[in-house]
Amino acid sequence: MKFDMGSTALSTLTTQTAGSSNDLGVLIRQLVAAAEPLEGRFNGAGKTAFDTFKLNADEITSALNGALSQILGGQSGMDKAFGTGDQESADNAHSALAAANFDAARFSGR
User: pTM, whole model, 2 decimals?
Assistant: First the structure.
């Protein structure tokens, strides 16, 4: 099995995830604002859940951003590991190439 990705795939993913983290808080606040007209229409458990969500929107945003931060850390670590592995592979190939005896592999009719 072959796994192949470009050298910038993880760094691009990390950049996009960081941007999503900033957008997430804005989206949650927009959701709370958009639901304002519905506030008086809930009863019972629905009202309780809505009120709890509204009161805890900042905490929810913080928890989600914390989770995204952990994802960013993982992506950064993977990017570093892939980069290191790529460099080690190149170094090993150059080392093996330098040690190869190409003259011994020549075939001649003499």
Answer: 0.59
